[in-house]
Write a structure and sequence with these properties.
CATH architecture of the largest domain: 3-Layer(aba) Sandwich
Strand order of the largest sheet: 3-4-2-1-5-6-7-8
Number of domains: 2
Strand content: 15-25%
CATH topology of the largest domain: Rossmann fold
Largest sheet: 8 strands, mixed
Number of strands: 14
Helix content: 25-40%
């Protein structure tokens, strides 16, 4: 089958920078059995085309990105018909996918993987902040033939809107990111790690205030913060104000190859997000044998308390207490790590690809002008 996959980006021609590893893992697996064309809305500002992970990447670029993306899908469809259009992320990606599918009389699938269903007005984030956004998401998602999402909290949000969806995590590639058994702590001070862009959604101020509370508790630790800085040094300045200079290191962006040894050296992953569909780093940490503490969003909420510890959003005191609880109870830390690894490995990249393909049409579509018969499982 020929598949049109619509994504915001994450498919840089380098295959290493500006990529989403789980997305590349999915594309590579789909390309083993299908002809995959990826339509990236904003990978690069200028339109381009390249091969990656066994698929053809069509970078749309600026301006008029959505209209040009729909046109690009229709043009490629005329060369040889697609069997379906699949969006990873709702919002603009789902709009392009569903409209293109309707125009071509094709089935469409949408995977909700970001902030499309939330409205965080205080940080100007989320697809439901305005009535136009709410209307767009409602129309587009109701127009999709099938909807999936990474975690139970997102499924619950969809159900609250009257939309039926299937839970389907984007799993880790166990070949590129191999499992490592959970390990006992052998070093002092404790090694903590936080992975995520420095931005408002990840809420690093809550993280840093929790770390300052750990210092006041007398706990010895070092924190590695990994991720692109989109806040122009604001978090570094806050860390200095909180007296965390000796405890916190900001590393900026790291490739997967660079991140892996840092993750393996960690005793605990700590996240402080206001919203997550995943996060994907929780799954990566789990596969690497590292337990996690974080705010009650996405996988943290559905895994707590057996495979992770979750605390209320923006509650730095509870986050500090949870970190302290795990660091002072080695039995608990190892139990969390083992259960998290079990869950992450059950739903790895192979599982994700197989589950998506089970939702794809089971009967071929005839070319334009002939009757079309589509069946969607699930």
């Amino acid at each position: 089958m020929k598949i049109a996959l619509v994504v915001p980006g994450g498919v840089d021609r380098s295959g290493e920078f500006r990529v989403i590893p789980v997305l590349l893992a999915l594309i590579e697996r789909l390309a083993r059995a299908h002809e995959v064309h990826v339509f990236a809305l904003h990978q690069e500002a200028v339109a381009g085309r390249w091969e990656l992970a066994g698929a053809t990447i069509h970078n749309i670029g600026d301006p008029w990105t959505r209209l040009r993306a729909i046109a690009a899908i229709r043009t490629e469809h005329r060369h040889a018909p697609f069997g379906l259009v699949h969006a990873i992320f709702a919002g603009p990606c789902s709009l392009v996918a569903v409209v293109a599918a309707k125009l071509l009389w094709l089935p469409s699938l949408v995977h909700v993987a970001g902030g499309e269903l939330v409205a965080l007005h205080e940080i100007d984030y989320g697809g439901r902040r305005t009535w136009k956004g709410r209307l767009r998401e409602a129309c587009v998602l109701r127009g999709a033939d099938s909807i999936t999402a990474a975690s139970t909290p997102i499924i619950d949000s969809l159900q609250a809107l009257g939309l039926k969806a299937r839970r389907l995590p984007l799993g880790v590639d166990l070949q590129a990111w191999p499992p490592l058994a959970p390990r006992e702590r052998s070093a002092k001070p404790a090694r903590l790690i936080h992975v995520g862009s420095l931005n408002r959604v990840k809420d690093q101020p809550t993280l840093l205030r929790a770390l300052a509370a750990l210092v006041d508790m007398g706990l010895e630790f070092e924190m590695d913060i990994v991720g692109e800085d989109t806040l122009q040094g604001e978090m570094q300045r806050l860390a200095d104000q909180l007296g965390l200079e000796r405890h916190v290191r900001f590393h900026g962006f790291k490739t997967q190859r660079e991140l892996r040894p840092m993750m393996e050296a960690a005793d605990l992953l700590v996240m402080s997000s206001l919203h997550e569909a995943g996060p994907l780093v929780l799954l990566e940490a789990a596969v690497a044998g590292v337990p996690a503490v974080g705010t009650a969003v996405g996988h943290f909420k559905e895994w707590s308390p057996s495979a992770a510890l979750a605390v209320p959003v923006r509650d730095w005191e509870e986050l500090a207490n949870a970190i302290g609880e795990v660091l002072t109870n080695e039995g608990l830390r190892l139990r969390l790590a083992r259960e998290a690894q079990r869950l992450a490995m059950l739903e790895d990249a192979d599982y994700t690809a197989q589950a998506f393909q089970a939702l794809y049409p089971q009967h071929s579509l005839f070319v334009a002008g002939q009757s079309k018969h589509v069946e969607l499982d699930g």
